[in-house]
Amino acid sequence: MQEPYVTYSIHNKIATVEFYTPQHNSLPTIILQQLADTITQAGNDDNCKVIILKSAGNKTFCAGASFDELMSIENEEQGLIFFSGFAKVINAIRQCPQFIIGSVQGKAIGGGVGLACSCDYTLATVHAQIKLSELAVGIGPFVVGPAVERKIGNAAAYELAIDASNFRSAEWAMQKGLYVNIFSSIEELEGAVEALATTLSNYNADAMHEIKKAFWKGTENWDELLMQRAAISGKLILSDFSKKFLKEFKKK
User: Fold this and answer.
1) Which of 2, 3, 114, 4 is nearest to 53 (CA)?
2) In this structure, are residues 81 and 240 in contact, taking their beta carbons and an 8 Å threshold?
3) How many angstroms separate the CA atoms of 179 and 124, rounded?
4) Domains in the chain, ordered, with CATH?
5) Residue 193's closest CA among 91, 85, 61, 87?
6) What is the pLDDT along the chain (252 residues), one digit of tens a residue?
7) Which residues fall within 8 angstroms of residue 96, CB to CB, at 6 or more apart?
8) d(CA 193, CA 54)
9) What is the DSSP string of the chain?
């Protein structure tokens, strides 16, 4: 079984940040921190004009939080540390001066939806269903909520948060504005992502930086807000409901 990783590569001013974990690309603290650090690194790279964010594999873009780590949380401090990992990644994307293209090849669940929504321009395959499963676990999409609401609107985000057990199709996600376009295969997706990145790599970097800054206006309080939200999830994950859910899930 391959070890979890986050990689960074750059070619022709196009940076690619790729992550992987063997548990359906679910994210433990160490990978979340590496993701945040790598995105920040790309943002500070003078040779980088545009960034592609993707995961390895062909079935799941990101299954959200690592359930193994969720089960190990014993107090609110540990809960805050874990959920703040997602806050750090979202804020790294938000603060990164370059456009980030999300390449979503498969299902996005929980925090994975938050990552897809945080990207500036997200393309996907027809298999990229989405689900905010947090309520079923006994918590809520508190950390990713602002990013989801910003991308698809309050009504659609609320629908996802309440119907926590069912996926929405990639077509639904595109209609709501999460995906700009969807493709029938990973090969077509990767071709479209590469073509867009190549076009952007030839544009004025300063203009792109200013456009991104303008479109993210009003999120300046997210450093504090997302940490407050992480504390809420960190407290709720200690509930008897969540502990029972995780224990039963582990048995499956």
Assistant:
1) 114
2) no
3) 6
4) 5-200 (3.90.226.10)
5) 61
6) 689 999 999 999 999 999 999 999 999 999 999 999 999 999 999 999 999 999 999 999 999 999 999 999 999 999 999 999 999 999 999 999 999 999 999 999 999 999 999 999 999 999 999 999 999 999 999 999 999 999 999 999 999 999 999 999 999 999 999 999 999 999 999 999 999 999 999 999 999 999 999 999 999 999 999 999 999 999 999 999 999 999 888 776
7) 39, 40, 42, 43, 51
8) 10
9) -PPPEEEEEEETTEEEEEEE-TTTT-B-HHHHHHHHHHHHHHHT-TT-SEEEEEESSSSEEE--B-HHHHHH--SHHHHHHHHHHHHHHHHHHHH-SSEEEEEE-SEEETHHHHHHHHSSEEEEETT--EE--HHHHTS-STTTHHHHHHHH-HHHHHHHHHSTTS-B-HHHHHHTTS-SEEESSHHHHHHHHHHHHHHHTTS-HHHHHHHHHHHTTT-TTHHHHHHHHHHHHHHHTTSHHHHHHHHHHHH-
The encoded tokens of residue 165 equal 């057990």
pTM of the model: 0.96
- Residue showing tokens 């509930």: 239
Give me the count of residues in the chain. 252
Orientation angle between helical segments 145-152 and 111-118, nearest 10 degrees: 50
